[in-house]
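Researcher: I'd like a structural prediction for the single chain below. Treat it as a standalone chain; there are no partners to consider.
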Amino acid sequence: MLLRRRKNPYRELEKTIGYKFRRLSLLETALTHRSYRFERPEIEHDNQRLEYLGDAALALAAAAYFYRKMANVDEGALTSFRSQLTSGKALSKIARDIDVGRFVLVGRGEEKSGGRKRLSLLEDALEAVVGAAFLDGGLKAVEKIFGRVFVPIVENMSMDVWADNPKGKLQEVAQRKWRKGPQYRVVAKTGPPHAAVFTVEAMVDGKMLGRGKGPNKQEAETRAAHNALRRGLK
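Model: Treating it as a single chain, here is the predicted structure.
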């Protein structure tokens, strides 16, 4: 497809991500959704395998970045920061901000259903672009993209290192202090069935560590754990 064209249709995207591909065919594959390939039997590959590779390459770039930047932070906090930056929520936002969707090749049905704007499609495409960059220029290429489009996001990240997994952190703390994990109990359920609000307490040995409310038990448990951590449990 691309090799038959005289102009590079991805030049603007390359400028945005801060990396110029030597093999544009890799970038094109990274931006080829499976729905497009299914409609064109002459196309051998879509971006699913590159997405897998990009996920791993991005995690490594993020881990290296936080390792160098935060010399006095332990591995648990570093893992949390990396997870926040490489989460599906963060990836889809970055992909939307740099308008990756405009360059993705999608099938007719996907186009009609608005798939080009779907967050999961944008997330996958961005990871695939990172994977293509790794094949094209190694880790240095990935780090160029990381520095251009991911590092600016760090300034807006939550400095609450366990914001993405407070239940995991509370489990770790409880095991260290009491050699047992916390238990969660529903202490109240209010509101109509279609809009119920659950109140949950996180406890160890009958001691209430934190309390949280949410539209379901899982969310209420997460908020209870976060509340326990906020109360200074370490």
